[in-house]
Input
Amino acid sequence: MPSYVVKENVSLDKRWVSEITPKAEDFSKWYLDVVRKAELADYGSVKGCMIIRPYGYGIWERARDLLDRRIKDSGHENAYFPLFIPESALKKEAEHVKGFAPEVAWVTRGGNEELEEPLAIRPTSEAIICPMYAKWVRSYRDLPILINQWANVVRWEKVTRPFLRTTEFLWQEGHTVHATAEEAQDETLRILEIYREFVETELAIPVVKGLKTERERFAGALQTYAIEALMTDGRALQAGTSHNLGQHFAKAFDIRFEDENQQMQYGWSTSWGVSTRLVGAIIMTHGDDSGLIVPPHVAPIQVIIVPISAGNWKETVLPHARSLLEKLRAAGIRCKLDDRDNYTPGWKFADWEMRGVPVRCEIGPKDIEKKQVVLVRRDNREKAFVPMEGLESRLTAMLEQVQDALFRKACEFRDKNTTNVDTFPVFEEMMESRPGFLRCFWCGSAECETAVKEKTSATIRVIPFGADEEKGTCVFCGKEAISRVLFAKAY
Ligand SMILES: [Zn+2]
Output
């Protein structure tokens, strides 16, 4: 029996990776272990700033491209606006500046000179984009304006965590202007649906769409809508937001147009964004005790080819592995050949398992003889002996199966951890012992919302669409409820 057969004889639950803190022991430590060991990100010399390493950036890049295509297909164009916002511009919309003031970073010097007016480093770009829109919009014929930008923003955060909350992060921000309130509302909801479809299809993360309460609303918005996901520690993560800004910003920045009856009107605007947070959401939705699991659609490496290094493998196995690599690449599969000489196959299995590559393809002398390879799925560790003939289509299908399985598993988890709760003692106990989404009736008052947060640290994540059809009484005060809402502890 060749030596490799013994080495790769892995039972379904045997894990190759042992140096990651188990999730159940300390979720937060598990998360940081995965970020560090899978080489997704590292800390920089400025507190709260992260370096996104090539593998982490590769995931973001795939996600970005898949979303960018959707943004363009829905009629939007990309542009780029400056990083700096004059203080006077940031102060124009009162609610906006109040909301962002505590986390704005300022530039007060340029070279050796004190600036006459301090410049904010954008925490979001409404205040730099709206003055331009005011200049560009003259007539109803100039509308709608449908622009998106991919950029970095800075928010001076006190507590940071890689991908989830960092002082500087990457995102896209869409900024649109419309002639009517209805059009702006349609745009807000259209983008929310694009986000839902993108996050569920490409990242395999199920989300709930809904409206934010006034307390959780974007500073300066008329309404904020969001998609909320449930992480595997039972905490919610806001995965994307879409804001109907009404005429607040148009009035503050004087975005006016002449309508069809030659009357001057203020425009109606929206803004919307998703960020590198989504990489954190991928880690916390799909990862396990062996590390990361990357959904195939966004995996920088979908298939890792590991040659079994027995005997004179460089002469016997490696050439076959190389032609396999060529063949799979030609079929459009993102793959890599691990031909490192100084590591055993077992070590390599562990390394790629930790990085969450969806499928491992092993090839050894015996496989070459039999004209086959061994495929091992990262998500369920299922092993299959597959003929070399027709491998491309088999692998393509398998990657889709992994994508589907990850989404289904995440849906099951979310559903299992979404509970209707009608009394506050049960609410408190559940938030303490087994958090998740708690669907509760709420009277609509900010006082109840604040009191619940103070007592349990849980917040209303969204008022889900359609949830107002149920009738009941507020979980906190007992008054008549406006709707069931989703409460959770959140990132
Ligand atoms: Zn109440």
Observations:
- The longest strand covers residues 168-178.
- The two ends are 52 Å apart (CA to CA).
- The domain at 418-488 is CATH 3.30.110.30 (Translation Initiation Factor IF3).
